[in-house]
Amino acid sequence: MDLAVEIKDLVKQFRPAGRKEPLLAVDRVSINIALGEVYGLIGPNGSGKSTTMKALLGLVQPDAGVCRIFGNDSMRVDSRQDVGFLPENPYFYKHLSGSETLRFYGKLCGLRGAKLEARVKELLALVDLMEAGNRRLGGYSKGMLQRIGLAQALIQEPRLVILDEPTAGVDPVGSRQIRDLILDLKQRGITVFLCSHLLEQVQEVCDRVGIIFRGRMVKEGPIDELLAVEDQTEIVLRDASPELVAKVRELVAAEGSAELLRAGRPRTTLERLFLQETVDRREP
Ligand SMILES: Nc1ncnc2c1ncn2[C@@H]1O[C@H](COP(=O)(O)OP(=O)(O)OP(=O)(O)O)[C@@H](O)[C@H]1O
Q1: Residue of 23, 57, 95, 162 with fewest CB within 10 Å of its CB?
Q2: Which residue numbers delimit the ABC transporter domain (predicted)?
């Protein structure tokens, strides 16, 4: 299997001031991410997600273990050539406009002239900030800032994108835009490694997830397998009359070997309801 990311037995300790014992932030974590896969790392605050990502990017030095990106050791600077990164709290110059910001990062990545201008335009369109491209970031909303952050991470057409909390502080509308952008990256074969506290979104975009707790990987697998309830079968009926539901109940009871756990109207999610009642609402 061709791997975009290989993290093997990663260990990282910190020695916070005023604390005698070292703090074990990441404890023998291993993660493989295949080319083109969208992988989500989830876990409570302080469980080691950002530290794992930073070690993968060579931004923190591991105490043990290895991290590789497309087969290259993460501690080598050139391993980051094909990587875009959106940090948890990106800092941007507030006096620059959206397009100036992208131009700035594009130049840092060696883009110049017509190629840079074309890339800036393309990215502003991709993150739906064409109209706001000439406005200063100081006036951007949180969702717009995250989208410019995402555009910044894509500037040099990376093959791997690492997103630390891409939807932090963003409302459901902005989160949905970011989710769609991640799905778009997946469509284009770009590998995505993300961590987020928005579990419903992780469920929607990721092929595989890992759950990390107190620095340790406690569960990992394809999302469909992890979420399937082994001993249950779901049947969803449209327009079923109460009589039909009663018949189904009788049939199951007569059969004896199975139990009907629930029959009623399925629930939507609060996120879907929010979107339906706000942006998706059509004026009469
Ligand atoms: N530079 C540092 N110095 C000291 N301790 C640190 C440092 N960076 C992280 N830690 C500690 O390591 C642990 C893991 O932190 P990390 O930021 O990786 O967690 P996280 O899962 O990303 O959390 P969150 O969901 O809050 O972003 C925490 O206890 C944190 O306080």
Answers
A1: 95
A2: 5-239
